[in-house]
Amino acid sequence: MTGSLRDSIAFRASREAAKAMIGEIDALRWLLHVVDARLRAPGVAGVATHLHLDIAEAIVDAHIEELAEPGLTAERLAQLRTDPRCLVIVSALHFLTTPHCPAAADDDEDELEILSWATDVARCELPVS
């Protein structure tokens, strides 16, 4: 791999797509469905990738729960739609499930690199308490 996938045109496109998705419950649920179908199929990804997928999916699930909260204020919705933790995760998941991404079976190291980077960034954003 020459250069980082995070600097690629494809990943920048996924970040833009993620910006539109992180405030939309249906779009996030669809993304999780695609992740499950494409990346969790037997033999597609290794154990390490599955661990990072667990982390990523938990972050997206929690984000969906927050979006679905009754009485969600406009201010809180605006915060959720710009949540950097969710943005990086959704960007990575979108990138990994789009056709321009190298197939998981062909380049598992690149997949793991982008996914582990995203989960590391997201975990650093978590409040410590």
3D structure, described in words:
This protein is mainly α and 129 residues long. The protein contains six helices and no strands. The chain has helices spanning 9-21, 25-39, 47-67, 74-80, 84-97, 108-124. Helix 5 packs antiparallel against helix 6 (108-124). The radius of gyration is 14 Å and the shape is globular. It starts with 8 loop residues before the first helix and ends in a 5-residue tail after the last helix. The mean pLDDT is 82.
Write the layout of secondary structure elements.
Layout lengths: L8 H13 L3 H15 L7 H21 L6 H7 L3 H14 L10 H17 L5
Helix pairs in contact: 1-5, 2-3, 2-5, 3-5, 3-6, 5-6
Low-confidence stretches: none
How many distinct beta strands?
Answer: 0
Strand content: under 5%
Q: What is the string of helix and strand elements?
A: HHHHHH
Shape: globular
Provide the structure class. mainly alpha
The biggest sheet amounts to: none
**Residue-averaged pLDDT:** 82
Q: What separation lies between the terminal Cα atoms?
A: 38 Å
The residue fraction in helices comes out at 55-70%
How big is the Rg?
14 Å
Tally of contiguous helical segments: 6
